[in-house]
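Moderator note: this is an archived Q&A kept for reference. The question asked for a predicted structure of one protein chain; the sequence and the answer are reproduced below.
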Amino acid sequence: MDIAEVKRKLRNLKRLECALRNSGQLKNCPVLVWDSFFDLTEKGGQKAKKARYEPGELCAMSREEFRAVIDEYWAFVYGELFKEDIIQGRLFYDRDALIQLGLPFDADETAVKKRFRELAKIYHPDVGGDAVKFIELMTLYRRLIVG
């Protein structure tokens, strides 16, 4: 894809999210999810924020990778949409904690446990790891699995 096509598709995504907001369905989310995902400013312009994906990065992706990014974006939008309606339990994970663990937004409990074990082997103080990072890891794990 070329840069113009990517920007056009991203603008359409933003319009759709704005339409959801204007319909009153995203009333509890103060900012656009789109703003945290995409940044259409040119390299010479001032960047006020760090977006997950920039147009140049998206142009270099295959169609499947680009589709995965869009799926991830919509999962976050619908996560905001249903945030208050879903009873938070073992099946609704904290997205920010998943990102900190380096897991995809749709990771299940098995993936969380597996990633925790991998990182625990690295950061556990008994094997020469960093105790502060291990405590942070434990806190994230408790947020996802226990709480």
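Archived answer notes: The chain is about 60% helix and 0% strand.
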